[in-house]
Specification:
The chain is of the alpha+beta class and 647 residues long. Helix content is 54%, strand content 9%. It contains 23 helices and 10 strands. It has a 4-stranded mixed sheet with strand order 1-4-5-8. Helix 8 packs across helix 10 (285-296) and helix 13 packs across helix 21 (534-562). The two termini are 44 Å apart.
Length: 647
Amino acid sequence: MSVSPEAPSGRPVVTEREARQVAEAAREQTWRKPSFAKELFLGRFRLDLIHPHPLPADEAVQRGEEFLDKLRDFVETKVDGALIEREARIPDEIVDGLKELGAFGMKIDTKYGGLGLTQVYYNKALALVGSASPAIGVLLSAHQSIGVPQPLKLFGTQEQKERFLPRCARTDISAFLLTEPDVGSDPARLATTAVPDGDDYVLDGVKLWTTNGVVADLLVVMARVPKSEGHRGGITAFVVETDSPGITVENRNAFMGLRGIENGVTRFHRVRVPASHRIGEEGQGLKIALTTLNTGRLSLPASCVAAGKWCLKIAREWSAAREQWGKPIAHHEAVGKKISFIAATTFALEAVSDLASQMADENRNDIRIEGALAKLYASEMAWRMADELVQIRGGRGFETAESLRARGERGVAAEQLLRDLRINRIFEGSTEIMHLLIAREAVDAHLSVAGDLIDPDKSLSDKAKAGVGAGVFYAKWLPKLVAGPGQLPTSYSEFKHEVDLSPHLRHVERTARRLARSTFYAMSRWQGRMETKQAFLGRIVDIGAELFAMSAACVRAEMLRSRGDHGREAYQLADAFCRQARLRIDELFERLWTNTDDHDRKVVKGVMSGTYTWLEDGIVDPSDDGPWIADTTPGPSTKENVHRPIR
């Protein structure tokens, strides 16, 4: 795309269309492998892609279980989560101990000194350590899921892998730097620059919310290379040594939750980076970031599964001990329904996380939608479970664990869990952005055949050609949405045992076709305006997420039954979850066409034009008068460097 003029601050001025073009160019344009979730959104329930449930190899299981045993012993004997919360810092000796265990190299190949764990066991390890201290889970995840190891594994040269991966496996901590004070999910406005200069690039700019950045030794930095002779330019990824001259960590940020994370603001002033440290080609930075996140996002569902398991344990124990009106509160229906929701949802989240992770390990399927759905669904449902736990605990749920201990009761950090989980709905793509990202992938088949029809910039001849292609596609596709296996009472009979899950799978098949019909109708109705219907698209995605979770839960239950591993109980949990999910799906379908979206837009216009400022009368605003967005003008730092490498 053409580079727009720059604002006085040096930040590029980007139109809405240009921003969309940058995002679209970063997408994987083709589907070389099958995708269960993509087929689901097209109305095709391809159960064969996930059933029988894929399983890890015996050698991978042995290696993973051996490491989990060591990690559990370390966590139980060395990690004090309350201390980390109180002091808002992970002790250096804990970090050193994790390095000695090899925890920083869990996903790194053994030939580079790593442990070579599968995604499944990497997630199990994150869940285990995160249950003791979510801050430690974030430290390890940011280092391996999105930090230097993952992009180098996918896009690095052999020389880069040999140079950096052994360090990441044992000694060095890494971080990923994309966000800027005025750039979140719209990277087209990225202001950090990397100007070619001989065999180097010179970096200038400021990065915000650099998780691990305060203690990192190595950074993955996204910067905009200006287009020039011999340089195609564009957003590009670099590995940067944190001790390079010109790098200053200007602030260690503090948050409502995850108090122990080392998250900061990093300034680059004329930082020289060898061209040999560039990952991939110029202009491939966003594609590298998105591809990295396809599996990198799976670490968040793992932490959410851990949270659900803890919520269930505390809810069970507390609800048995606490009595009201002559019986334990668990036996009061109002509380019992919350416990049922937590139990069923925890089972489903583990099913979604393990299925998506095992699919990532097998690499037979394209899991870009599955990974995104897992992150979206887990982060939203875990937050609900934590909120319900606080409600079950009552006033004690609002009280800190330290306060509970001080007055002689068990220190249960329910309020901390709520604070710690809240960021997951924002981390690595907010819920709103995930809705749009997944929706774009879900309608990809439609846009590939009919996109030119609804593009106002296309010529009449282009639209005519698109019309022919779309006619052929829809003539074959639409009739298949009328009937399917979901209407046959004998379908999916292998899921019928003491508890019958086959009706739920038939419901998934029927609902997938209904979802596809609704999407097609919406595209026909709104055409080019479809992308502005974000609330509608969000509901479409949420329905798909529920269907994916139902499918994963049923498949996991059958896998456990076939192995003789709590199969009867797994079927009960899957059945309960599917019944709850079906009610949520019914509500979402109702809200597709009966909603307040148009009225909400009118109210928003009124709010933003000042029509309702009278509604703000009667309060004082305790926030200060500082700027909404900090100044990021390139230049030398005027602040103390708070970078503190852990050695």
